[in-house]
Amino acid sequence: MNESPLDIEHSIEIDAAPDKVWKFLTEPDWVPQWLGCMQYEKAVGHVFYMQQDAAKRDAGDVSGATHCRTLALDEPRRFAFSWYLPDTPETEVHIVLESADGVTRVKLEHTGWNQFDAEMIRSIRDALEGGWKSFVLPNLKRVVENGRG
What we know:
Radius of gyration: 15 Å
Distance between the termini: 33 Å
Order of helices and strands: EHHEHEEEEH
Number of domains: 1
CATH class: Alpha Beta
């Protein structure tokens, strides 16, 4: 991956083995619970959606939603997907699992921001950084540690 000063990198530790984390990270019954997405399927090449508008999300409407295309499902280590709006360059989200002392370190990297003018994209990129760190990764931790399966 080509690193850019705008790349987003965060990690979190989850009190579970990598195979359990993988299940919650990639299975269709669980992904919407931690990622908040719509129409996810566990298949490379499949497009799913991130709909910020709650009414549209509840109605299954993907208009205006961020598109995500699954790029990799390397069990039990790496889940990757693109993140883009139609007619814009695709950025990439890579989530890597590493086992350490009975816990799993989940590392998230969101790259590809160097395709955009840094000043024009900074507010969107900064909002996503906050979301990954304060919402998505803690949600994954909560779902895995409290989930059954």
